[in-house]
Automatic annotation (TrEMBL), chains A, B:
GO terms for molecular function: GTP binding; GTPase activity; kinase activity. This is LAO/AO transport system kinase. It comes from Nocardioides scoriae. Residues 51-279 form the AAA+ ATPase domain. Keywords: Chaperone, GTP-binding, Hydrolase, Kinase, Nucleotide-binding, Transferase.
Amino acid sequence: MGRRSTGDVPALVERARQGDPRSVARLISLVEDASPLLREVMAGLVAHAGHAQVVGITGPPGVGKSTSTSALVGVLRRQGRRVGVLAVDPSSPFSGGALLGDRVRMQEHALDPGVYIRSMASRGHLGGLSWATPQALRVLDAAGCDVVLVETVGVGQSEVEVAAMADTTLVLLAPGMGDGIQAAKAGILEVGDVFVVNKSDRDGAAQVRRELRSVVALSERAAGAWTPPIVMTSADRGEGVEEVAAAIGSHHEHLVASGELERRRRRRARDEIENLALTTLRQQWRGVHEHAALDDLADEVVHGRSDPYAAADRLLASLEAPR
Amino acid sequence: MGRRSTGDVPALVERARQGDPRSVARLISLVEDASPLLREVMAGLVAHAGHAQVVGITGPPGVGKSTSTSALVGVLRRQGRRVGVLAVDPSSPFSGGALLGDRVRMQEHALDPGVYIRSMASRGHLGGLSWATPQALRVLDAAGCDVVLVETVGVGQSEVEVAAMADTTLVLLAPGMGDGIQAAKAGILEVGDVFVVNKSDRDGAAQVRRELRSVVALSERAAGAWTPPIVMTSADRGEGVEEVAAAIGSHHEHLVASGELERRRRRRARDEIENLALTTLRQQWRGVHEHAALDDLADEVVHGRSDPYAAADRLLASLEAPR
């Protein structure tokens, strides 16, 4: 692998487009490594992306995200659709093609050539989740996936962040977790396009549905806007999972018909471009060889000789000067 | 208040420097509102800041952060030191001088003129926590606080973010929460300069201490580096809190003697300058009137006519052209 030269990128991209799993895996590794080859990779992929429906799967720990994701993959595969799964763990140092511990249920799909499963760590990434995820999504999209499921393992902000990258966001809850208000606080309920109450055979499932119904009823929506459905499931027994797939399909139709899909994708592209541009600037400012300007300015602020606003102005002014 | 003109800023800054609590409160409100007056405020304050020791207080919900903070304020006050408390809740829409519900214990200090207590919401802020907190810290610092305690109410990433702004980070744990591994996963243990096992009269406290000891023993440290002490407390009865204050003091001495204080503060200033500069750029790029460039570029990426790297390059190039 270490011997691959830049000249291999077009061939690698071509093999990934034809669905070769090793090439797809290699391209996602390039994303994880923030490889300089990514510019060339993305230039080769961008014209072939835009087909996949990106579905974010969020919810508090313990609601059965992994089981639900696996069951959903099963239903989508029986419909003949190609599926990508990206399990993003912003706090994990582990990554790669290996299946993480609690992802063991996904192994039933591990040998299916119509499914790509990938765990991705984003910790330590310059720009983190928001930098790496859109690029990994583009790889899976261009490789011919009809649906890409993005599951976050993290909590709080990272879930909201991933939702911003999805066309459709599934929010999973379960009874007996006391999570109604908790989840609302973290902003998870606000981003849900489809709500799933998993473990619906347990006590309290009806209560969770009632709470969700009032949240949905109380939230402000424009005329003609999408009303998030609430689906009851027992993912470990496969119950209700076809309804989840149907709800995802309906939401996609709504997104297309209303023009919202285009708007969401434009917003996503805007975020991605902005993040790449800001990352480039950050690298320049922190680069030891190119600009030591930021260090000098920090020194002045620490010793009270400059305030941070004036320092920021000078940092920006250095961009506008010829380099 | 609404009638205040820009000309009042120097007077306001001067009153805050002399410790007038209303002026301090007003300046922190300007930070929360991202007021355009902040440039002038920070220019006036920067030469008077740099004295306070900033202590971050983090830990999972339920360990007794609020009680410990309050008890620590009591000890520091008995030592004659002026104390600021900044309670940061990244998920809360509430803010202002009002004491939040679970901060009710802090009321014993509410009438003490040597203590400033402030709850701050950062949700919705452009740049969030990392934008607002350093500026609020500078206000409390310049107002003459010897120690500023920063307590996060949030979870996960926000706690690590606040730790990055502190000179000394206190990590609180408690028995019976099953949080040993959880906390480690969120990266909290890595940022601890002082560990506190609160509720140390409960079963399992010794076990938490043992786990922490192995974490400390296993972590790699350079020769002469600080070894985080582990302090057992029962904050609600005031037990062990003087030892916490002593550990904070020792860590401060270590920071000064090793030159690490200067390094941490320089890094903090660098982050702050960078965040201000990037926020300015983001505002420009998203500004409807100034640059619609980002929207056009996003369109090209969505339709596969440009890849995100090329688009980011063009966005940056637009900065270097004369405006």
